[in-house]
Design a protein that fits this description.
By secondary structure, this protein is an alpha/beta fold. The protein contains 13 helices and eleven strands. It has a seven-stranded mixed sheet with strand order 6-5-4-7-8-11-10, sandwiched between helices. It has a four-stranded antiparallel sheet with strand order 1-2-3-9, covered by helices on one side. Bound molecules: zinc ion. Zinc ion binds next to loops.
Length: about 325
């Protein structure tokens, strides 16, 4: 008998995969009460620590520095995000970036006058942020990090929540660190989208313990006392990214959870029977050439720069 779902309390679940994306054994189940898809069992702290010490660094190419092309791509995405949401970020002063990675958000937000503190468990990336980009980043995990209540008016959690073994508990902690009018930005991969686009069996990873879709992400946030910022709901609603604020009204379990679980289970069944990836648009060959074109553009773009910092300053000057 498995433990009750951390989100909805149901003990009803079904297996959706027995392997991870590289073919290694990994049992993944869907909760039929709400649709959250998790590793089974949820790994212990010790198992996770061992994984991040060894496999993760290999899986994620533990290069001492990010590649120039990757940095260019990341800066482009963050620049676009900041420009699209400039009104939401306006007036924010103190930001905590949890899982700050290679620091693009911190660098560009700094140019907008937002003072950022970063927390990044990866030793090399946090050192890169400090040494090359001059950012205030400490090397530690979210679990190790401690901040005073109400310290930040902006917290960013991008591609981190899916790695947490108790996401609601983690979000409750962030809720405390936020000021009363604080803003929390959360972004996670969307398992529903991945199930639709990726080849059968290529969706799961030991490090991604909770695989959210838009409904279950908002469920976890709601349980932690957070609600979506109205403007964010209309702009980003339906995606797995959003801006959340401290809820003004008590949380009520949404009525559509069972329906979400059933739809997602059906999507996983289709996914498991898919032998080749489904192109986002057009044909597989067209997608191949369009990706090649983008990569080629990136290669040409970064040739103009001799250091990572030069790329950062280039984007910083146009934000
Ligand atoms: Zn559930």
């Amino acid at each position: 008998m498995s433990k009750p779902c951390q989100l909805c309390g149901s003990t009803q679940h079904e297996t959706v995969s027995d392997f991870d994306r590289s073919g290694k054994p990994l049992k993944t189940v869907i909760c039929m009460g709400c649709g959250i898809i998790t590793n089974e069992p949820i790994p212990t702290d010790e198992e996770l620590a061992a994984f991040y010490r060894t496999d993760y660094r290999k899986d994620y190419k533990g290069a001492a520095e990010p590649r120039m092309r990757q940095v260019w791509r990341n800066f482009g995405r963050i620049e676009q995000h900041l420009k699209q949401n400039r009104d939401i970020y306006a007036g924010r002063r103190l930001c905590l970036d949890l899982g700050s990675g290679s620091g693009e958000f911190m660098f560009l937000a700094g140019k907008l006058g937002i003072e950022c503190t970063g927390v990044e468990p990866n030793v090399d990336y946090s050192a890169y942020c400090r040494d090359k980009l001059g950012l205030n980043v400490t090397t530690q995990t979210l679990e190790e990090a401690r901040f005073a209540d109400g310290s930040y008016d902006l917290i960013r959690l991008s591609h981190v929540l899916e790695h947490m073994r108790q996401p609601v508990r983690s979000l409750k902690l962030l809720h405390r660190w936020l000021s009363d009018d604080g803003l929390l930005y959360i972004e996670v991969p969307d398992i529903e989208r991945d199930a639709e686009l990726k080849m059968g069996g290529r969706a799961f990873h030991f490090g991604h313990i909770f695989n959210f879709n838009p409904v279950t992400l908002r469920l976890a946030a709601g349980m932690a006392g957070l609600e979506e910022l109205p403007v964010s709901r209309s702009r980003l609603g339906g995606t797995t990214g959003g801006f959340f604020i401290k809820a003004k009204t008590p949380f009520v379990m949404p009525a559509n959870l069972k329906e979400n679980a059933e739809r997602l289970k059906a999507a996983m069944d289709v996914h498991n029977s898919r032998a080749i990836p489904r192109p986002k648009q057009g044909t597989a060959l067209g997608r191949f050439f369009s990706t090649m074109g983008l990569r080629l553009k990136e290669i040409m773009a970064v040739r103009r720069f001799s250091t990572h910092r030069d790329i950062a300053e280039h984007f910083g000057s146009q934000i």
